[in-house]
Predict the 3D structure of the following.
Amino acid sequence: MAEFSFRQRIVLAVVPRVVALILRVLGSTLRYEDVFPAGARDPIPGDAYPGPTVYAFWHRSLLACAHRFRKKDIAILISQSFDGELIARTVELLGFKAVRGSSSRGGASGLRAMSEAYTAGHRCAFTADGPRGPSMVAKAGPAQLAKLVEAPWVGAFYALPVRAWELKTWDRFLIPKPFSKVYVSFPEHVPANAADLQAGIQAALDEAVVMAENARRLASDHVARP
């Protein structure tokens, strides 16, 4: 663990508690609706599968996912920087498991840490395009982990608020507005033995976005009808 200055220690003692409280209050106002592929015979939300599992999602939907997947001990890879420490302490207060390691420079430490979390029986979730993008372009992490731990499949999901503030960040980060509905889409899992697993994960993530956007559009059209 890195040594932090006195000011940083104060920030670490206060900010995660405040942010976690705000997220709990905001999350309690949101209305979630799960979306599944057309014709799915037995749709099951991704968090219903017991660990260990491997999932991928887009960085911009991170906040929209926080309340939906809280208190499920889901392992999330977070950097070892000061900002990462802030995030780690916050997500742990929400019931996630913060796995510390680097996803850059080859991501060896992050991959090793996530494989240990998988072996311990956790659901492991990657922001596939994080932490710096490019937006909605899947990196190799989820595929690498699935192959390393011999997972049977990789899942994908996406959370889309009907009403949200969209930040002018690299990922167009979404902050759900209070009392918004949030569509959470779960496409079919990608078999880990796919010929091109990373391409399969990219396709599943793209499909998740389309599913959620279609659900939002259909709901909007229904409301607009006379």
Q: What stands out?
A: The chain has a mean pLDDT of 91. The longest strand covers residues 31-35. The two ends are 60 Å apart (CA to CA).
